[in-house]
User: Fold this.
Amino acid sequence: MSKQKSEVYDPSVAFRRTGPAVAAFVTALLVAMSLYHYYASGFGLLRELVHRSIHLSFVMGLIFLVFGFTNKNLTQIAPKAWFRFQGVAIIDFIFAGLAVWAVLYLPMMTPVELSNRVGNPMPMDVFMGSVLLVAVLEATRRSVGITLPIIVLIALTYAVFGQQAPGVMKHSGASWTALINHLYLTNQGIYGIAIGVVAKYVFLFVLFGVLATEIGLGRLFIDLAQVLAGRFAGGPAKVAIFSSALLGTISGSSIANTVTTGALTIPAMKKIGYPPHFAGAVEASSSTGGQITPPIMGAAAFIMVEFLEIPYRQILLAATFPAMMHYFGIFVMVHLEAKKLGLRGLTADELPKFMKVFAEHWMTIFPVVILLYLIIDGYTPDYAAFWSITACVVIGFVNPRNRLTIKTLIGALATGAKYALSVGAAAASVGIIVGVVTLTGTGFRLSFMVIQSAAQLGEWFTAGYMGYFFTVEALTLFFSLVFTAIACIIMGAGIPTTATYIILVSIAAPALNQLGIEPLVAHFFVFYYGVLADVTPPVALAAYAGAGIAGANPFRTGNTAFRLSIAKALVPFVFVYSPALLIVTSEFNLTDFFITLSGCAMGIGLLGSAFAGYAFGLLKNYERWWIAIAALFFVAPGLQTMAIGAIAAAPVFALQILRNRKTARATG
Assistant:
């Protein structure tokens, strides 16, 4: 069931069926891809360009064999057509060969020969670069969807016809030869940082997630979540939160997380009385939280390491408490919704027994322990992934439960590589976008536009009574954050997390940096709002996957999922105004951290109560608006603003208590 739902909403797993000969050939290539990356991570990488090229050649060649021109099963439409061999069109074999040739064309040159070509490409270089450009666009369309290729085409059009752009976005334009030179022959385009991080880190963690799930770690997470939260009011919804948080630590996809845990939690939520759209939304919002949860964070953590040049463990430490706040926000609203509806928890008979769960699955936790230990001890992510993968294989063969066999190991190696193909294609496409940004200076141009527009709005507001309360600088920062957040949500619609983050860092983050925001804070801000797109209509892919399982209206489910994820929208503003929440920033101190954390939790609690319409009892509409406004005082946490927010919210809760007592006396 979950696989079918995932194929409907996630093109990255819509693999086509093929005949046995092609299937065996593809499986052999997938296993070879996994074994190559495993070997390279443990025994040393090749030269940077060579390693990236080998990875990309696997990705490009396999995509044309694994993904059809459409998501339909073409073998059922015309199984004996002359232009198709065992379900794969002959033209796809040709595309695969051309793509691999174009990828490997560069590393076949000597470093000296290649350096002489940069800036002065030969006609053959331009031809091969053009072939790869087209192949990357088509491979991305097949494996990721149409949104990202459209953005790439817009970027390419802007690069070539920049002299026609309006205002500050105008530039001199680049010839096709100059564009191919930049995108193909340098490390600023297709072979840039995006494909480098995917080849070095991301692939290994995708493989680790598949192997960890194969040996039973996912089952352990779900059972532990039931033991911890199942017996409380609205238990299945709280199980969904905890299980998605745990599974999200090894999953790189919010959609995959949704359909994996949602197949169990959504029917359970509906069974005890949650409306279908709410059940789907809980699972979607919780699963999307996996993208901001250490240690993998949808692979964005590895990109941050490369961009910010700081240790991986610092990224994980910075991500910990914001992720906790996201899940706390969902938990508050789920709990209040359960109280409002009078929903029960799971009975003792419906819950697994802790000792039984521990006895059956305790060995599966060791790969995660090894991963975290090595990362905390300062080893590189790829080295930590190497030993974690090794631990998965060893435990899989010795554990009597979920025991691996040679056949299942080969299947897991093939599946891990197959799931990583779409990430590789997206990274290559993002490399094109980043290349256009560096070639044209788009990031700085957009930053200028954002800051100028925000400053004009700030001046307009402070010209009136608002000038008594806010400065132009404060409002310029606030409106810049709002504009950036909106742009991030729009850009993130329908694009994988890793690709979204890289695009946003190149385009949106420079505006925040120009306002004096610390780079780590700016990166986390755009990352959070990019991830939020997965549950923000009209293109809320994770929410639509949850709606498909729940049998609910997709748009209504998306709206509810966005409401449940409101903490993810609030927290970035909190750590911009008080960077201590991220711990590893230059302004960190324990006093500010505890004030910020407690203030953030209180603000999220108030917002949760306002959105749920329930506190100690049902809230009237004006009371909901009142405490929602009070919650905004906690965006810039400080003792003074926290006191104002608390004082503002107190009368609503006092009225609630008085109403409850009056009702109790009347019914007593």
In short: Residues 2-145 form one domain.
